[in-house]
C-alpha cells in the first residue's frame, strides 16, 4: 500500500486516487501506531526530581548516602572529615599512638569485560605480599562491581577471579528483539547481571562493609542521574550500616546502575524524596560523566585534614581497565560502524582526560600518583562482549605483570615529568 502511495503521480494531488491513497495511508499509520503502543512494555515512572531540588534528594529512611558531584561538594567534604574522625577513634581504641598511618586510595575505572585486568592485578598484588589496605576505594561501571570486593580485601580475590574468568554473555544480558529493544528502554535486559550481583553481594557482605566503614574506611560508587545529567556519588559504606533488605536492594541496584550503558541496558529507577514528596531518578552508567574518579577536586584533602590536626602520607593507585594507546582500525563506510567507532574514541579521550584531572588534583594535594593500564602489547582476540577466553587472557596478563612488581606509571600518558636537577659534584 505504501509503495502505491509513493508511486502516485505528483501532479494528481486533487484527484480521487490521491484521496484514496491518503486514506489508506492514514489507516495503515493508525494500525502501526496502535500495534507499537501495544508492544511497549516500559512501565510508567514517578516524576523526576526538579532541577532546583537535585542536591536535596534523599533515599527514604537512608539519609546521607547520596551526594551530587559538581563544582561544590560541601557534603562530600563532611563525609571525608567524618571518616577521619571514625578512623582516629578506631585507632585510639586499638592503642595506636603517634602519627596517622599512610592513607592509600584505590580508584577502579570502567571498561566492561576489561575489568579482568583489575581482577588479575589485585590477585597478584595479594600474592606479592605488598597489597595495602585501602582507606578509600572508588568504582565506576565495571569498576563499581569490583570495588566492594577490592575494599574487603584478599578474602574476595577468588570471587573476582571467578567472575572475570568464567562468565559469558549469557551471565550478563538477555538480548531483546530489534522491535522489542526499540519499543522498550534498552536493546538488552540486564536481569542476568542483577541475579549474578545478588549472588555475590549478600547480607553478610554488607555487614563486612559496614564494619570497615566503622573503622573510617570509605567505599564510593558513581552513577549518572540521567534526568539531571549529573554524576551521583554513593556512600556504599553508609548504605551498608542501615542493613536489612532495603539497604541490600539499594546497594545492588547502585552497582548494576553504574554498569548500565544507556540504550544497551535498562536504567535503574531509584526512589527518592524531597521534603516528604516522592520522586524517581533514572540512573545509568557512571561512565557517562567520568571513566574513573578518586575524590572531587573541590576537596583539598591535605588542607582539610591539616585543619583538624592530621598530617599523613597519601598514595593513590588508579586501575584503568583500558588501553591508553590509539588502536588503528580501518572503518567500514556504514552508519553504525562510524558511530560506534566515534563513541569509542570519545570514551577513550574522556578516560585520558579524567586521568589528567585526577593527576592535577593529586599533585595539588601532595598525593602520590600511580597508574596501571592495559599494555599496548595485549592484543588477544575479542569476539564479543564478556568473551570468556578474552577475559582469561587479560586476567593472566595483568596477573603476570603484577606478580613481577607492577610498573606503576607516575603520570598520565603523554605527560613528561620535569627532570630533577642534579647538583654538580
Task: Tell me what the structure shows.
By secondary structure, this protein is of the alpha/beta class. The chain is 44% helix and 15% strand. The strands form two sheets. Strands 1, 2, 3, 6, 7, 8, 9, 10 and 11 form a nine-stranded mixed beta sheet that branches. A two-stranded antiparallel ribbon has the order 4-5. Helix 4 (115-128) packs antiparallel against helix 6 (157-166), helix 4 (115-128) runs parallel beside helix 14 and helix 10 runs antiparallel to helix 11. The longest helix is centred in the last third of the chain and has 31 residues, at 335-365. It starts with a helix and ends in a 22-residue tail after the last helix.
Radius of gyration, whole Å = 25 Å
Overall 3D form: globular
Distance, first to last CA: 92 Å
Query: Main beta sheet: strand number and arrangement?
Result: 9 strands, mixed
Number of contiguous helices: 14
Question: Which descriptors apply to this entry?
Answer:
single chain, 425 residues, alpha/beta, nine-stranded mixed beta sheet, two-stranded antiparallel sheet, 14 helices, 15% strand, disordered N terminus, disordered C terminus
Task: Give the SSE map.
Elements: H1 2-7, H2 16-39, E1 66-68, H3 74-93, E2 103-108, H4 115-128, E3 136-140, H5 142-152, H6 157-166, E4 174-175, H7 178-183, E5 188-189, H8 191-200, H9 203-214, E6 218-225, E7 230-235, H10 236-242, H11 244-257, E8 268-274, E9 277-284, H12 301-307, E10 314-323, H13 335-365, E11 368-374, H14 388-403
Parallel strand pairs: 2-3, 2-10, 3-6, 10-11
Antiparallel strand pairs: 1-7, 4-5, 6-7, 6-9, 8-9
Helix pairs in contact: 4-5, 4-6, 4-14, 6-14, 8-11, 9-10, 10-11
Amino acid at each position: 500500500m505504501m509503495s502505491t502511495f509513493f508511486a502516485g503521480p505528483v501532479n494528481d494531488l486533487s484527484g480521487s486516487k490521491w484521496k484514496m491513497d491518503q486514506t489508506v495511508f492514514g489507516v495503515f499509520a493508525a494500525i502501526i501506531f496502535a500495534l507499537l503502543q501495544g508492544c511497549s512494555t516500559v512501565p510508567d515512572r514517578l516524576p523526576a526530581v526538579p532541577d532546583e531540588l537535585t542536591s536535596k534528594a534523599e533515599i527514604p529512611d537512608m539519609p546521607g548516602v547520596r551526594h551530587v558531584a559538581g563544582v561544590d561538594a560541601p557534603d562530600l567534604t563532611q563525609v571525608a572529615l567524618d571518616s577521619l574522625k571514625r578512623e582516629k577513634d578506631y585507632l585510639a581504641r586499638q592503642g595506636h599512638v603517634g602519627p596517622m598511618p599512610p592513607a592509600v586510595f584505590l580508584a577502579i575505572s570502567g571498561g566492561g569485560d576489561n575489568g579482568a585486568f583489575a581482577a588479575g592485578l589485585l590477585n597478584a598484588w595479594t600474592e606479592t605480599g605488598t597489597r595495602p589496605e585501602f582507606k578509600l576505594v572508588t568504582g565506576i561501571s565495571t569498576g563499581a562491581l569490583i570495588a566492594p570486593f577490592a575494599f574487603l580485601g584478599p578474602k574476595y580475590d577468588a570471587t573476582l577471579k571467578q567472575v572475570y574468568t568464567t562468565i559469558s554473555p549469557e551471565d550478563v544480558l538477555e538480548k531483546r528483539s530489534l522491535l522489542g529493544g526499540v519499543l522498550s528502554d534498552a536493546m538488552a535486559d540486564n536481569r542476568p547481571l542483577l541475579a549474578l550481583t545478588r549472588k555475590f553481594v549478600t547480607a553478610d557482605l554488607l555487614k563486612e562493609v559496614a564494619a570497615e566503614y566503622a573503622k573510617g574506611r570509605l567505599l564510593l560508587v558513581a552513577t549518572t542521574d540521567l534526568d539531571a545529567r549529573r554524576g551521583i556519588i554513593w556512600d556504599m559504606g553508609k548504605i551498608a550500616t542501615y542493613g536489612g533488605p532495603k539497604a541490600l536492594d539499594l546497594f545492588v541496584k547502585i552497582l548494576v546502575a553504574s554498569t548500565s550503558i544507556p540504550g544497551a541496558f535498562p536504567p535503574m529507577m531509584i526512589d527518592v524524596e524531597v521534603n516528604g514528596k516522592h520522586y524517581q531518578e533514572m540512573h545509568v552508567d557512571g561512565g557517562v560523566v567520568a571513566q574513573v574518579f578518586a575524590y572531587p577536586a573541590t576537596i583539598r584533602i591535605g588542607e582539610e585534614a591539616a585543619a583538624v590536626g592530621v598530617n599523613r602520607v597519601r598514595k593513590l593507585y588508579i586501575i584503568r581497565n583500558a588501553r591508553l594507546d590509539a588502536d588503528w582500525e580501518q572503518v567500514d563506510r556504514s552508519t553504525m560502524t562510524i558511530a560506534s567507532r566515534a563513541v569509542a574514541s570519545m570514551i577513550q579521550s574522556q578516560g585520558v582526560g579524567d586521568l589528567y584531572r585526577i593527576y592535577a588534583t593529586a599533585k595539588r594535594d601532595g598525593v602520590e600518583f600511580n597508574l596501571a593500564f592495559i599494555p599496548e602489547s595485549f592484543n588477544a582476540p575479542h569476539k564479543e562482549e564478556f568473551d570468556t577466553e578474552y577475559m582469561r587472557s587479560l586476567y593472566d596478563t595483568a596477573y603476570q605483570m603484577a606478580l613481577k612488581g607492577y610498573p606503576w606509571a607516575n603520570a598520565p600518558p603523554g605527560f613528561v615529568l620535569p627532570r630533577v636537577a642534579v647538583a654538580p659534584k
